[in-house]
Amino acid sequence: MQSFKKIKTIITPLDKVNVDTDQIVPKQFLKLVQKSGFGKFLFYNWRYNDQEQLKSDFVLNEPKYKNSKILVAGDNFGCGSSREHAVWALLDYGFSVVIASSFADIFYSNCFKNGLLPIVLDEKTIEKLQLETGDVEVDLENQIIKTNSKTIPFDIDSHKKKILLEGLDDIAQTLLYEKKITEFENQSKIPSVL
Amino acid sequence: MGKTLFEKIWDAHVVVEKENSPSLIYIDRHLVHEVTSPQAFDGLRMNNRKVRRPDLTIATMDHNVPTNNRGLPILDQTSSVQIQTLEKNCKDFGIKLFDINSPNQGIVHVIGPQLGITLPGTTIVCGDSHTSTHGAFGALAFGIGTSEVEHVLASQTLWLEKPTPFEIKVEGKRKNPHAVTAKDIILSIIKNIGTSGGNGTVIEYRGEGISDLSMEQRMTICNMSIEAGARAGLIAPDEKTFEYLRGRQYTPKNYEFLVDYWRENLKTDSGAKFEKNYTLHIDDIAPQVSWGTNPGMTIDVTESVPSPEDFAKGDQNQKKGAEKALEYMNLKSGTPMTEIKIDRVFIGSCTNARLEDLIEASKVVKGRKVSPNVKAMIVPGSQMVKKQAEELGLDKIFIDANFEWRESGCSMCLGMNPDILSPGERCASTSNRNFEGRQGTGGRTHLVSPVMAAAAAIFGHFVDVREMDLN
How many whole angstroms separate alpha carbon B158 and alpha carbon B91? Predict the structure, then answer.
């Protein structure tokens, strides 16, 4: 997995609450059997009109946000379907950080499997951050967000932070506990399915 | 201090526990489907890993499968590739697959319980958020992403942060249980606690209003826990649970021994502490209809479309959300819900496509015809449900009324197969999500119970089914 340490770009404000994963990647694009190439489907129904042309009134389509890597959205981001395609699409489009006042659980967990950094800030801070037009630096090591005028600290679980900083392969780590897993299986009362 | 049911199941599955870190939790049952698994199997191949416990892993194809004639080839090339990929992956890794021609094929959350694969006290995962359904049996069951699917395939475990227990009590008795259903109970709960009200929690549903429900109705409740943001929903197993699972195809041989153990152990101790509590009184609740673009945007069928101000109760973000929802749904505040005309009816999904759902809907439909302006379809949750319904003659009742009677699958709940709404079409749906474009780009979804959907098909608009004779 790719690691995440620090980035500096302008932010893209997405002034919406309850952005569900059906909006992040609509279902017709879930049929691919690989992880790459989902960026073009990101927020598809908001980005494109019926003729598949870009809609000028959607924030991601404004040229100034073209190189932004930080998405700032409202409450309960990533709710609904468990589709990890949502995270793959955000990353493939170019985002490395999503900031929101809260995240749905499965989406939040999926972020850390792919190197996307989700940051929770309170609603007031989000509202101010969405108005920020200059470059914003997100520094995971020091857990701070720096704008031209201020420094905003953020919380993150130390275990999750380590995973992102080091880009750890989760499964390889887990298989170090192979002996414990076998011990557990030997005492389990739950029978096999077959 | 006593423990909650959730804590007991959690504690019984901890493989590794570390201070201030997630715990390694053992997974007893892993359900796999075609959409969220291909990248996981690829990951195994790239790292030369095997599936640790194929005997605890079961696969089926449900999201993509066409629901018309199963004898015809699948026209959508990408769907077809995804289905073939699952076949190949199951073959390569030695996993039992109920394929498109199997009598056991169906929506993964319908077949698990029907086959006796879902068991009380177990941990169950699937790359699908509605895995919470299995909580109706007292299993800790939750949806996971594709990376976690790969992790479970490789290790039969997951690193998890412990959610907090949330008690939802459902008190009282419904006056007309045929008209006011489990769907109306769970929609009422979500409308009250909100779509993020359960974030970070495992909900345990308790009280007379829950123990009164059949197993299939309990599944409807637990299924939609995720729509309140919860990781999982749980109901303590009782005699109804044990009876439901007895003698099914994959019910374990030592079942009675397990039942004795479960009866003794799988309940929340008196004095156990829940982090959150909510109580719903159901004596007087009405059939529910969603009006907006998330399941929390729901009201009684007797009410009118709310104004964004009334809905938001002072929250500016909620107000903006409601304005956008009304625009998308093409609804005006103040319109009585019963005056909203519909174009399509979908009775299906892991929420409401079990045998009882179809029986209840058939009572509304029998001897009547679908409104000429409405196109209505029934998609049974599994091939087994379909067969049982046909043995009861339900297919004939629906077909005579001009419903389409389909093969099983997820179908128009999420529209990955050809069953989709056209832009602007308005649908009364027994599914679980009314998100923008969920059932088809530009489509408008109203979430309702099976009886409400059936009645909407007949009358062409929403009606209060309490006014109908459903006994």
Answer: 24
